[in-house]
Amino acid sequence: GVFSFPQQTAEGIRDALQLSSLFIDFEFDDHLFSPCGYSLNGIKGDRYFTLHITPQEQSSYCSFETNLTEKDLPAEVLEHFLLKLQPERWDLICVDRPLLVAKSRDNTSINTCSITTDAGYDVYFKHVDQQDELLFTQII
């Protein structure tokens, strides 16, 4: 996979995920972890996203947090990440953007919740633990 080579670079991962073309004019701050793993923050004005990737073969995981609207970040972009990364488990956290409620399927667990912060932000959480391929746009 893209994220399993010791010679990987942050720039190489950004290119593989096409971050510059998906998030035009965002400023990126990212970090590679040893022996593997990647974390990125993207900021543009008051909009942000955070991406974490843990590509270990025995327990692959990724998370994506954002306050981007569905117009600015359609489900197809999130699906793009999931298809490229193919994690066994993943989290999606959105601020002021409700998430679809999807039913769990065989070999898949989907858990969702939401909270309203003291500052009045609605924060939506989704955790997916999947053992086989899903149609991502149906659960994002």
Automatic annotation (TrEMBL):
GO terms for biological process: spermidine biosynthetic process. Pfam families: SAM_decarbox. InterPro entries: AdoMetDC-like (IPR048283), S-AdoMet_deCO2ase_core (IPR016067). SUPFAM superfamilies: S-adenosylmethionine decarboxylase. GO terms for molecular function: adenosylmethionine decarboxylase activity. It comes from the Bacteria. Gene3D superfamilies: S-adenosylmethionine decarboxylase. PANTHER family: S-ADENOSYLMETHIONINE DECARBOXYLASE (PTHR11570), S-ADENOSYLMETHIONINE DECARBOXYLASE PROENZYME (PTHR11570:SF0). This is S-adenosylmethionine decarboxylase proenzyme, putative. It comes from Shewanella benthica KT99.
